[in-house]
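[audit] Reproducing an earlier prediction to check determinism. Same input, same settings, fresh worker. If the tokens differ from the archived copy the diff job will pick it up downstream; this log only records the rerun itself.
[audit] input (177 residues):
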Amino acid sequence: MKKIYFILFSVIALSCTKEPVADFTTNKSVYDEGDLVVCTNTSQDASTYEWGSLLSNGNEKDFSFFLLPNQISATIEMIAYSDNLKKSDYISKTITIRLKCEKNNTGTYYFKNSTSGILTIKIDGGAGFNVLSGQNSQTLTLSAGVHSYYVVDNNYHTWQGNFDVIQCEENWSYFIL
């Protein structure tokens, strides 16, 4: 009879384990390249953790790592486990990183023609320029802001749309992911 009570008690105890809720905060909302990212664990009902990012991983309660130069974003992942390791919860967060700006606060672009004909390209309704099949256009230097493009090939097929050039502010370029 004692064995039955023990088994029943064990089953009830296992089923009463709370679901962990994985969560963490970071020490900043936006980072500069090379910064130290500090993650503070705010998980609930968890006792064991697995952290991961492209640069590092660990199993401590809190987690930190340095950002690499020219890195524009980083995704941080964490799994929180219950006391008996039977239940877990997962969370990931992506942080934004500001990159240092190039001089002149402009963007440079070129267009590659992967079609078999000639393309005529117009930017912001200006004069068009031709790009031969398999070639790249001249490099364009464009100011910050939204620019429109209109492309027509020698068979009169057209493509049009917009793209954004993000200008530097106080010597920084903001990349929004």
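[audit] rerun output stored. Observation attached for the diff report: The two ends are 62 Å apart (CA to CA).
[audit] end
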